[in-house]
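Example for tutorial group B:
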């Protein structure tokens, strides 16, 4: 119990120092926000949505212009360009009796994403060739 009392005393000292410095804690003692604001969430959501929209537009363009090595690659990319998750791509392929797993789909997508970046973002690729 001594440690708990020491903690409370030390906490009280530091909270006083923080208050004197002008610090305002955004959380209450029960770790909940004192005041909830959606401004940051809204800005982040708009930016995130725009980035996703641009990515999937590029993914669809890649689908129509890239020469895929196999029909499986093209099928996987088609699903990916429609924002279908790797897990669900595997399920869809298994329904049509194509044996695969998440690791295989992941690696195919990783390679194709790199090809897409080379095609549409050459300066990005030059600066990040290790990926």
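The residue assignment follows.
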């Amino acid at each position: 119990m001594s440690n708990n009392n020491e903690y409370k005393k030390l906490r009280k000292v530091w909270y006083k120092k923080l208050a004197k410095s002008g610090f305002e804690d955004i959380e209450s003692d029960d770790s909940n926000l004192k005041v909830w604001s959606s401004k940051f969430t809204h800005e982040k959501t708009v930016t995130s949505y725009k980035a996703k929209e641009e990515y999937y537009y590029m993914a669809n363009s890649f689908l129509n212009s890239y020469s895929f090595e196999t029909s499986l690659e093209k099928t996987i990319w088609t699903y990916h360009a429609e924002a279908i998750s790797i897990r669900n791509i595997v399920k869809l392929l298994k329904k049509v009796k194509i044996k695969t797993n998440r690791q295989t789909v992941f690696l195919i997508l990783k390679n194709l994403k790199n090809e897409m970046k080379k095609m549409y973002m050459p300066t990005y690729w030059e600066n990040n060739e290790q990926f």
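Helices lie at 2-20, 39-65, 71-81, 86-95, 102-120, 122-127. Compare this with the pattern of hydrophobic and polar residues in the output above.
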